[in-house]
């Protein structure tokens, strides 16, 4: 089922097919992270699916398997300052383009999760809910999610009052209460309405 898009692309002559997805469009803090993954035709790791449908434990296991077996993995990261400058949609598309640019070898076709293509001179197709329809996008969704979660966990020492390892910057009740109490920190997205509304003081 998840190989249908890849099989059709290969019938059309494409060989290095990359799936592209992002993690972190919705959170109030932290970067948006994209991943691009080229899988071999022989990829046989079971359980790869939309990262949102998987437990953290399973995502971490599959993350290692994808890195072990993929032909190439590229990561793109756009920080909160740039998100505030260009908006989250443009930041997500920029992160995707960076991720694809970090692939070696260069892909000859892209499958991108969502409704937008990216500003690269490569054949590409946007697939709505692609992370549940394309094995390549599903793999990218896992890599992007795990990468971003680990980045957010790394902020535990810099900003312990926000407990980023637990909520990863999403607008949970505990996170909103922390913003109300402490104000926003340097990794908060100040252009986001919930941050503007809740913050009282700045670090």
Outline:
By secondary structure, the protein is of the alpha/beta class.
Note the topology.
Elements: H1 4-11, E1 17-23, E2 32-38, H2 56-69, E3 72-78, H3 80-86, H4 88-101, E4 109-113, E5 124-127, H5 135-153, H6 164-167, H7 173-182, H8 193-198
Parallel strand pairs: 1-4, 4-5
Antiparallel strand pairs: 1-2, 2-3
Helix pairs in contact: 2-5, 3-4
Strand count, sense and barrel status of the largest sheet are: 5 strands, mixed
The backbone outline, from C-alpha atoms, is globular
Number of domains: 2
Strand segment count: 5
CATH superfamily label of the largest domain: Ribonuclease H-like superfamily/Ribonuclease H
Strand order of the largest sheet: 3-2-1-4-5
Output the number of helix runs.
8
Instruction: Briefly note the structural class of the backbone.
Output: alpha/beta
Name of the CATH class of the largest domain: Alpha Beta
Q: Provide the CATH architecture of the largest domain.
A: 2-Layer Sandwich
* Estimated share of beta-strand residues: 5-15%
Termini, distance in Å?
Answer: 49 Å
Q: List the secondary-structure elements in sequence, H or E.
A: HEEHEHHEEHHHH
The Cα radius of gyration reads: 17 Å
Contiguous uncertain segments of 5+ residues: none
| Helical coverage, percent range | 40-55%
């Amino acid at each position: 089922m998840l190989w249908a898009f890849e099989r059709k692309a290969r019938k059309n002559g494409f060989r290095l097919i990359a799936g592209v997805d992002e993690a972190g469009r919705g959170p109030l803090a932290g970067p948006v992270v994209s991943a691009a993954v080229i899988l071999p035709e022989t990829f046989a790791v079971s359980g790869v699916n939309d990262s949102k449908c998987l437990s953290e434990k399973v995502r971490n296991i599959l993350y290692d398997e994808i890195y072990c077996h993929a032909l190439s993995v590229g990561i793109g990261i756009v920080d909160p300052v740039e998100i505030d400058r260009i908006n989250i949609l443009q930041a997500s598309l920029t992160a995707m383009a960076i991720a694809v640019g970090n692939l070696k070898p260069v892909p000859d076709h892209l499958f991108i999760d969502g409704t937008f293509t990216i500003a690269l001179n490569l054949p590409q197709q946007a697939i709505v809910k692609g992370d549940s329809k394309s094995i390549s996008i599903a793999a990218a969704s896992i890599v992007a999610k795990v990468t971003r979660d680990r980045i957010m966990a790394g902020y535990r020492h810099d900003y312990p009052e926000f407990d980023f390892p637990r909520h990863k910057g999403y607008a949970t009740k505990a996170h909103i209460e922390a913003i109300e109490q402490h104000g926003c920190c340097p990794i908060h997205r100040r252009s986001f309405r919930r941050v503007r509304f809740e913050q009282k003081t700045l670090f």
